[in-house]
Write a structure and sequence with these properties.
globular; 7 helices; four-stranded mixed β-sheet; alpha+beta; single chain
């Protein structure tokens, strides 16, 4: 069988993240590597929606758990334990051509579009999580916008922090991020910091999709 999905895994003794190398934003967590891989494969239908928004389709074998192959493993840290895919891998340090950069930006934009679409149809009050917590819709929107502002700083963008209710300001921040991601790169960290272009794209897209899917889940009756 042809391997369809190349995966990197970052892991600590408490948690692991499986990330699809060639599909920005597609990362899922589990208590172990195997559970993270299972979660990644089971989320393929959901990620396929964002991929279509970016103008691409997942390979048919993405629905087959056996089509996922780990091509790189790296240790995680406190961010991993907290629930964030935070390890920058060797594959994240690959050079980025103009075509690669444009594709990365398309997937980040598709993740934001997916999040916005879910938020538009979600109720203001979301169902509580299993422990009775979790942000409601507007708080979650604000959290994603604020996170994007912090992410922008990681790639060298100094931009006024937008009010989440100011769609023009939010779009201006997103445009600045996309413009930065569209630049070809030799794979070095951006702005003299730590994030590479590939890592920045997958981290920003993951965050938007993770909360879009959470919002979908918590919009439904318990």
């Amino acid at each position: 069988m042809t391997v369809a999905i190349a995966v990197t895994v970052e892991a600590t003794p408490k948690k692991a993240f499986a990330t699809a190398v060639d599909w920005p934003g597609w990362s899922r967590a589990g208590k172990t590597e195997e559970l993270a891989l299972d979660a990644l494969a089971s989320s393929a239908p959901r990620y396929a929606v964002a991929a279509r928004e970016a103008g691409e389709s997942l390979p048919p074998s993405s629905n087959d758990r056996g089509a996922y192959e780990v091509v790189e493993r790296t240790g995680g840290g406190s961010g991993t334990d907290f629930g964030v895919p935070s390890a920058i891998t060797d594959l994240d340090r690959r050079s980025v051509s103009v075509a690669d950069a444009e594709r990365l930006a398309r997937f980040v934009e598709a993740a934001w579009t997916t999040f916005d679409r879910v938020a538009t149809s979600a109720p203001a009050e979301l169902r509580k999580g299993p422990r009775g917590g979790g942000r409601d819709r507007d708080k979650m929107i604000g959290h994603v916008v604020e996170a994007d502002w912090y992410y922008a700083r990681e790639i060298g963008i100094r931009h006024p922090q937008p009010d989440p209710a100011d769609r023009a300001a939010v779009q201006a921040l997103r445009t600045a991020i996309l413009d930065a991601l569209r630049q070809a790169s030799d794979g070095s960290p951006l702005a003299g910091r730590k994030w590479t272009t590939r890592y920045a794209a997958r981290r920003i897209a993951w965050h938007a999709l993770d909360h879009a899917w959470e919002m979908e889940d918590r919009s439904a009756p318990g």
